[in-house]
Fold these 2 entries.
Entry 1:
Amino acid sequence: MEFNVALVGNPNCGKTTLFNALTGANQYVGNWPGVTVEKKTGKLKGHDGVTVVDLPGIYSLSPYTLEEVVARDYLINEHPQAVLNIVDGSNLERNLYLTTQALELGIPTVMAVNMMDVVEKSGDQIDLDALSKSMGCPVVAISALKNTGIDDVVAKLMEVAQSSAEPQRMHRFAADVEESLEQIEAALPADVPAHAKRFFAVKLFERDSKIASHMGATPNVEAIIKASEEAHDDDSESIIVNERYSYITSIIDGCVKHAQNKKEPIS
Ligand code: BGO
């Protein structure tokens, strides 16, 4: 079976170390078309038909940096069969910001929680089953540096890429924002694939300047956005940022147990 896996993660989360562990010496280095951002691809060890595409390290799928645009253009235009999202387990909260956006693309995803050696040393505990349920995708604990969990990642990747089941979207925004996004989804042109409708709706809601180039026709949803901004007394991009952070906080509360409970200061 031949397919592409996109490796997605924040800068410094261990993406290069994982890419090397997955592909070994079987790597090709070039540039992304039209830009001087390095493009690395490699054949998955033991699975010659599977190409791992190392996307630039990014914090978000917004259109503000060249790296973000390269990464999201690849995910939208090339539609890899699977996304391997590597997150730094010792910095889970910050890393999940990108994960929640990537999942909105509706591409089958495996999440690799890296730096587990660091997490274990700190005494923190991550409930991986609870995390998997909250995110709606398989979650595997790894240490790219110590080469642990890599076989599990590969097994899960093969599973999701070959499964015909649509990925489940677990995240629901606040009811009124959800309603605005559903209205925008209903207005999207037919060339937006069903699984990616949420991503496109969020980007239109945020007035993302570059999303129009991925659609045949851009629906006019300004009235929906304005109504939401008036109701929240905030701009639409901040509404989504706040929604995302409160969602991530609730996931972390349910999945992460810190070693030392921070005590309230005695007054
Ligand atoms: C240095 N565990 C631990 N403990 N460290 C890890 C793991 C892991 O599972 N995975 C990666 N690292 P990149 P991006 C370094 O380079 O793969 C470390 O940006 C150092 N270098 O070894 O480059 C990895 O591609 C000197 O650390 O990440 C690397 O995503 C002192 O995380 C860093 C200490 O990994 C980033 C660390 C000269």
Note: The longest strand covers residues 47-54.
Entry 2:
Amino acid sequence: MAEPINVVVSGAAGQIAYSLLYQLAAGTVFGQEQPINLRLLDIPPMMGILKGVVMELEDLALPLLNDILPTADPEAAFKDAAAVFLLGAMPRKEGMERKDLLAANVKIFKVQGEALDKFAKKDVKIVVVGNPANTNALICSHYAPSIPKENFTAMTRLDQNRAQALLASHLGVEVSNVTNVVIWGNHSSTQYPSTAYAKVKTNNSSKPVSEVIDDENWLNTEFVERIQKRGAAVIAARTMSSAMSAAKAAGDHMRDWWIGTKPGEFVSMGVTSDGSYGIPKDIIFSLPVTIKNKKYEIVQGLFISSFAQSKLDITAKELEEERAEANAVLKQ
Ligand code: NAD
Ligand code: LMR
């Protein structure tokens, strides 16, 4: 058995954490050979609730869970952290866009970036889930200059999972038979979910979606809109934002980063743009990546149609605007 690693969950008393923590303790993210020390970060008023979460974790009686530390102190939480899930932030309510949370949430990510910089391992892997996730990840990275930028990612895996599930249901195939759907851009209603490179497995052969779909126009219209607005649809129905599916997606994101992607398959992650596909540098933009030995690489050379280009431009512009707004908030 390997030495335990320190895994941090911020917002540990919240909704998403409640579903995520079981996955971590059960070994579905870091594998059945990797024990973990859980570092549960939340704010002081939540320490009572967190105590109950700790009791439940203990009562799971799971062998991979080595040690649990509930805390409101970022230093204690991030010390020697190997993997970090940043969930702790305010969720939106019905009628809001995710960027409306920026003023409230961006300061949290500045403080956490500074603490990560001082206390975490330099190869720590960080996924930001708290909204607006891309811009929060950018700010967090900015305030942690000693940690490589590629170690900061934003979660768009929920959008990818939604897109895979919707496409599979439209085609009448199992969800595991759909791969390589790509989420481009911001985790917001400007994101561009694309099926241009998606593959569908039918009778042991893998075909492009365009060869198996009757109504191709649906892919550029209703499909895109439903994925862009899925988070809002969940809030309207549940009166709270997605949590179970968000936790599953966070686990998927980190598991693929830790363990690697399957041959021939790519996944979407918000990563620091290196200028690939003409996307402005130094914003956190969701891109297709492959992962090996805990390092991701942006998939290169995909064809971008003029329709797709116009969508990429819109979401990139929104991210540049969010970056400017975040910087203005932090200067106040
Ligand atoms: P929640 O309100 O249930 O939990 C948030 C928790 O964060 C609370 O316990 C709160 O006390 C804690 N918190 C607040 N400030 C903190 C700080 N400075 N340090 C540590 N903890 C802090 O919310 P939730 O439903 O778990 O959602 C969390 C965030 O994730 C929201 O911003 C939500 O919009 C976002 N989200 C993102 C995605 C995505 O796909 N990227 C999906 C779902 C939700
Ligand atoms: C989601 O996509 O479900 C989350 O980002 C929550 C939200 O505000 O939509």
Note: DSSP finds twelve helices and 14 strands in the chain.
